[in-house]
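pasting input
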Amino acid sequence: MKAEIIGVGTELLLGQIANTNAQYLSGELAEIGVNVYFHTVVGDNPSRLADAIKQAEKRADLLIFTGGLGPTKDDLTKEIIAGHLQREMETDNDAWEKIQDYFKRTGRYMTANNEKQARVIIGAKVLPNEHGMAPGMFIKEGPCFYMLLPGPPHEMKPMFRTYGRQAIIDQLETVDCIESRVLRFFNIGEAEIAERLSDIIDAQTNPTVAPLAGDGEVTIRLTARSDSKDKAVAMLNDIEKQIQEKAGEHFYGYNDTSLMAELLKVLENRELTIAAAESLTGGLFQSEMTSVVGVSTMLLGGIVCYSNEAKVKLCDVKPETLEKYGAVSEQCAIELAENVRMSLNADIGISFTGAAGPDSLEGHPAGTVWIGMSFKDRESKAILAKMAGTRNGNRRRSVKMGCYYLLKELKELDKK
Amino acid sequence: MKAEIIGVGTELLLGQIANTNAQYLSGELAEIGVNVYFHTVVGDNPSRLADAIKQAEKRADLLIFTGGLGPTKDDLTKEIIAGHLQREMETDNDAWEKIQDYFKRTGRYMTANNEKQARVIIGAKVLPNEHGMAPGMFIKEGPCFYMLLPGPPHEMKPMFRTYGRQAIIDQLETVDCIESRVLRFFNIGEAEIAERLSDIIDAQTNPTVAPLAGDGEVTIRLTARSDSKDKAVAMLNDIEKQIQEKAGEHFYGYNDTSLMAELLKVLENRELTIAAAESLTGGLFQSEMTSVVGVSTMLLGGIVCYSNEAKVKLCDVKPETLEKYGAVSEQCAIELAENVRMSLNADIGISFTGAAGPDSLEGHPAGTVWIGMSFKDRESKAILAKMAGTRNGNRRRSVKMGCYYLLKELKELDKK
């Protein structure tokens, strides 16, 4: 089965939002072995949308539409598709009841245009919307399948995961079993990893080996096809072994993990607590940690000391340290890490202090960052990282560097 | 001029990344009056890329390609376009020197495949890459223009802004002057604002009026065309006045501002300093504030008190308060805001404490959040916000709510 994902909405063509729906659906379809050869984005324009449908029918047998099911008059995806397929529309009772009920529960004001959202194409399998009002649809007509999904990602994703995905799987004549695995690397460039792996990349057919750089990391996606899951997994294991031999020292995890998630795993396994003192990162390290459910046994908290005043008042950094060495210094990083650790009696203290940019700070160029680490049972240390990104790129990279070096430190502890 | 943006890269079709390049370019093109009617994404596949080029030539006269200029063998955009246009390639000396120089400066290891990046199509205007290695290109051939840009956004955006945009403007026969303005609203739903503005939206032709919901906000984009800038601006002023009359109490700012940016403006104008104590937001409020350049005169810092221990140890919350009222309480929010303000001698203290989710906390359902505010010269207060999003949706919305209510509070101060 070949799919094309058609995003409908002038807001996409005006650049107001990115087409993250196509990204999500592509990942989901890859997992169930449906090839996606094209994404298309078209505006809220009847004739251009109709043209896009005809074009897609020539090169795909599954057309997935996102957007244009909303309450306003420029939402016209289902109307155009109904016309194209020469079908009528009707009100879906379940959806209509749900809409009325929502307004009753929240006490919000229901407007007349909300009823339009409950209209569906006759003969469509209706996909319930558990996070919004407009239901989705799945239609078979001639050689093609048509799936209509809402535009807001927080409605579209659960609808696809719960109902859409299975509707597609039911139509697949499963031939191959497809297994994918993403390997994640840090502190190595894309060209260097591609050269180290050039023999493997040149020889690839099945499994495929696809490197990709982004956000200061390199990932390599491996995809194997076979007639059984076991065989596909064995193929992945074999090629991964070859890759790990050539670049394993930069590898840190699989699939959609992150350096932060890997750090949290290690902290959880060893029952370690952490506290942080953040200057240039301004709370980003702790905020990213807090975004994970169940972090409360590990992250005690910490301080944000964006100003030097806060470094002294909240974290007892000695004024002499700031005078003599400055805030962008090994000494300041170590005092911050030690003091924040002790103030919360944590096992680990981490600190970030440096010049985020765009300007230099205390004579240090933007991107000069000291990361301090303090431990209960061993000497403190600080690491100097130099980066050349934007202000927020440097802040994000600092957080990743902190996770990376702390992970290294904890793993070295293991070896001893 | 009509443009089509063609993203090239199998990583897009596998869902490894979102096509944020198309979003950025669409916004830039809208500003200079170039209509974008389609986005296309195609993989690293010679024949499908060639098909996409032929298709785009039928419906656009400016084809902008992103991606596929990199060092690896699956990067083939310029090779396919050269073939399609029947042109040869040559090494661009400036680009080649820059690549060699980069490796000399950073001491990194240069691989053989880096030379491929300096190859350009003969006759193309070369667009220098100031943040990476592969140069871009701009080509006129027959009735069409072709622009080739690199895939990594941090290379593509500055290249387009510095060189690509002007190359397009030079080709425009300017007829109309186009002015756009985005109005931003908070705490009102899309359907409600659409109903309030239904007369205006129904009657729109020029200026156009396009509402869009996302991330808990509604924006309305106004676009006017006229033969002079002054006339277009007057048309925007006129329609904005009508909209403000109907929904102005929810309006908070223009274009790409944010609630945080608006708050910072007010703090800066009044020379006020702020400190924060964050439980469920875990540093997100301060991190978002720190992402803005020049915030150091306003944000002194604060604490992250994700654990109750940290609330007591770092922010002097009375253990009795936690015992009697719990962490998710008005009393705790007010103590946090007052104590963090006083510990740094700031003008304003703000605090966030509540249940981020997915689980309830102390019997309060996920999404129950208290926001505390403390001021030097008036009584403290706390506001209860109820939300129904995911854990991180609730954390982000809490930060927005904090900005929104603090802005309201500071503006009310004005009136007195």
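fyi The CA atoms of residues 383 and 405 of chain B lie 8 Å apart.
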